[in-house]
Amino acid sequence: MMSFRNPSLLIGTAAAILPIIIYFITRDRISVIPFSTLRFFAGTSASLVRRKKWLETLLLALRALLCALIAIAFARPFLQKKPDASGKLRADQAVVVAVDVSQSMARPGAWKHAVDKADEVLAALPGGSIVSLIAFDQAARTESNWGDASQARTKLATLQPAAAGTDLVAALRKADESLAEVAADKKKVVLVSDLQRVGVSNAASGWKLHPGVALQVEPISPDSPSTVGIIGANLPQSVVNDRLPHPVTVRIANATAQPIKDVSIGLALTGQPVQSQKIAVPANQQLTASFRPTFGEVGDHAGTITLKTESTTETLYLNVNVLPRIRVAMLAQDDEARSASGAPFFLARAIQPAADSPFELKVLPASSATAADLANASVLIVLDVATISPELKQAIADFHKHGGGILLLPGSKTQPASFTSSFGEFAPCQLRRVLLASDTRKGGAKALITRVDLEHPIFEIFQKPHSGDFSAVGIDRYWEVTDSQLSRVPLRLDDGRPFMLEKVSPGGGSCVLIASPPDPAWNNFPQRAIYLPLLHQTLRYLAIRGEQPTTYQVGDLLPLTAENSLKDPAGQSHKGVPLIAAAPGLYTMTDPSGKTVFTYAVNTPFAEADTASIPADELRASMESPDQDDATAGSGLVSANLGSREFWSYLIGVSLVLVLVELFVSNKVPRH
Amino acid sequence: MAQPKYLNLATLSRIGNLQLLAKTVVEGFVLGLHKSPFHGSSVEFSEYRPYAAGDEIKRIDWKLFAKVDRYYVKQYEAETNLVCNILLDCSASMSYKSDPKGLSKFEYGCFLAACLAHFMIGQRDATGLVTFDDKVRTVIPPKLTPTHLRRILTELEDTKTGEKTQVAGAMNQLADGLKRKGLVVLISDLLDDVDSIKAALRRFRFQGHDMIIFHVMDNAELTFPFDRMMQMQDLESGQSTLVAPQSMRETYMKQLGNFLHSIEKAAGDVRADYKLFDTNTPLEIALSEYLYKRSQLG
């Protein structure tokens, strides 16, 4: 719909009649001249007159249109989007009311306060205001597009808090975009929220509301302050059937100023209590509660972690998928495949030291290995292979593409060019040359591992102090690598060169390269205590990384194959398409025969339990543009200008074209 | 101070008396010629006339001189050896004049006819006058008496322009009435069908008449000097049309040229003398043309 910034100037369109008036005033006075005969004008006069009249009419129309266009351009037209039912896209004031419907708003009293406050704001809006209602949790949705306050109030009454997290910035962005669609002298965002600080943690640096958009913050508090809640958890999703206890940890926070005792927290698996404990959480502090359950059988182990206080109960859902033994395929040169020494020996002994090892090793000679050999493997170790056949190369690439983990251990037989040719597609780096530590270090010292990325999942077990001495590893020879810019480097040597590198392919598996194989001729790694856990962790990581995640958050998309169906916690079955998790709980996937094939555990975002809030002034200061006050008065003008500038510039352009056409036509009109 | 070669038409037009105008023109012209008028040798007395320079002295009637103390010469009927008919177009188109202070084609034609009549009668040629538009309006048969000249001049003064031109029709009508062979002087703008005009001229020629055609056009008709758009109204049909002179001049001049060429060619075909006059052309030129033709006829 077209509107005008200066509609009063539209009176100028009356100037369109000026050319007509001027024409009649100044047109040639056609005097009647008696003449002896008209015989010498035969045939020319009529056509000339017709042409002249047509051209003069065209000229008049062009000039009138030109005047009208110029007048319209001065009225500064701009296009508005199609109006809603009320048709009020232009108003004195445009207000977006953003209401927080996240999980935290379900706390006692919070939602009622929020609705009352939003309703109060809507009721107090002066006439001529247009309102848009936005509901937001970790995403923002327009519930009521631009209209009057009563429409928004009606919609507000139907809202309910969800189980999702909070993203205040997403709400403000959405509100800002909505305000950009309308022209108003005043623009304002009213934020009704409990203002969780975690809601602004992912704010894009420097993003602010547009100049001229004011932010009014209405903080909401529950009737009773939060006591304790689970604000984080480390839940295993896939483990190998090693019959060992696996850590399950949850982080609990006390947001009150009083210590809370008798907090009961318990773990239950497949409906049976496994472990429980009572803890006391100091005031305004966090602590971690740990369980170490053993997951027995292969398959899903769904369960809950329940936190109980005197006033609240909070449940966390988990599902641990116990995998069978990890099948490891080791590709080695033919002469070393069955070697009783060197790297093959140390790898074989470490991976499968006994029959009940969680790993199952299969050694493949490089010359005879086929794609079928890789079919059942979870992890492939490529140990110092000089060359491989094109078929095997393709088989390895396909293995990796389908999520298989690969551990590359280049050795003395490895050729950099051949390595790049065979594994360059997914390898985290290229090889340059073999370096001798003694050449670059004083006194023939060995190279040492000096930097460890303990944040990497492989090294989680080494995070505790004294749980891994990497400095004990002495390295005599190692490959110098290049082109590793896109790879993660969990281990570095004392000279800064990468020792362990990882590259994860989008949609594919992970590939880890260790620059020195576990061979006494290269290093003393196999003889150190760190060797076995590091190798096992690496193989576990590579094997499990390709497994289907079992734990999600509300709002995530739950994978679902076409033939299976998914039952949500409310018991409703969904089939065919992936489902957006709307509520926390256990979602079970069943095949057409009704057999459960997988279980998803869905939780409310942990951060939602962190009710620490950001002060309203701080939020306003960080989100409003600095020139707020100056820009407020002219916000509508700015908005209208942005919309109209382009439009009336088109009108000026058309006018110029009309001037040219007018000049052309006027030169064609027979004057005398 | 040198005498102007021709009398100024604008000055002449201010002479209200057509007779005086004709006399002024003709006498001035004759003085310039230094030549006596033609005369006959008949024995049948016709009338006395005042002696005029160039007359032979032996023809002076001395007896009458003794009585009235003035010189008179005798005129005889046989001296009228040429019959001359002046055909004047008085159609509406002849009333056109581009300059409000100037002469219309009809006024110019009247002057021309008056001068010719005065001069012809002075030359002892019997002169008649026919006015016509789409038909013959007035016929004054050729005579040689002094009162006849007055009659012709009076008729010219009284004649007003009238209806459409139909030169051919009027000439055909006249051809039947002009029994005696002689000179036919046609004064017209000839705005008629050229083929019809040519047929009529051929008819005159067939009957033994010699012809002089004074084609009178206004200067504006010949040069089309207009520069502003105007509504032109046909003086004869009353129809009007919008004219853009700058755009139409080329077409006009081309068609006019074709018309004049056709007229001249038609005159040549019948061996008629053709002279195109615009209304600014001195009248003496017409008299010269007449004298030239008269000398050819003997």
Describe the structure.
Chain A has 672 residues and is an alpha/beta fold. Chain A has five domains: 2-78 and 646-668, no CATH class; 89-224 and 611-633, Rossmann fold (3-Layer(aba) Sandwich), CATH 3.40.50.410; 228-323 and 605-609, Immunoglobulin-like, CATH 2.60.40; 326-545, Class I glutamine amidotransferase (GATase) domain (Rossmann fold, 3-Layer(aba) Sandwich); 551-602, no CATH class. Chain A has 15 helices and 34 strands. In chain A, the strands form eight sheets. In chain A, strands 18-17-19-20-27-26-25-22-23 form a nine-stranded mixed β-sheet, with helices on both faces. In chain A, helix 1 (18-26) runs antiparallel to helix 2 (45-74), helix 2 (45-74) runs antiparallel to helix 15 (635-668) and helix 3 (110-123) runs antiparallel to helix 4 (149-156). Chain A starts with a strand and ends with a helix. Mean pLDDT of chain A is 83; it is low at 628-645. Chain B starts with 8 loop residues before the first helix and ends with a helix. Chain B is built from ten helices and ten strands. Chain B is elongated and about 75 Å long. Chain B has helices at residues 9-13, 18-33, 62-68, 105-122, 146-158, 167-177, 194-206, 219-223, 245-269, 283-297, and strands at residues 45-50, 72-76, 83-89, 126-132, 136-143, 183-188, 210-217, 230-234, 240-243, 273-278. In chain B, the strands form three sheets. A six-stranded mixed β-sheet of chain B has the order 5-4-3-6-7-10, sandwiched between helices. In chain B, helix 4 packs antiparallel against helix 5, helix 6 runs parallel beside helix 7 (194-206) and helix 7 runs parallel beside helix 9 (245-269). At the A-B interface, strand 2 and helix 2 of A face strand 8, strand 9 and helix 9 of B.
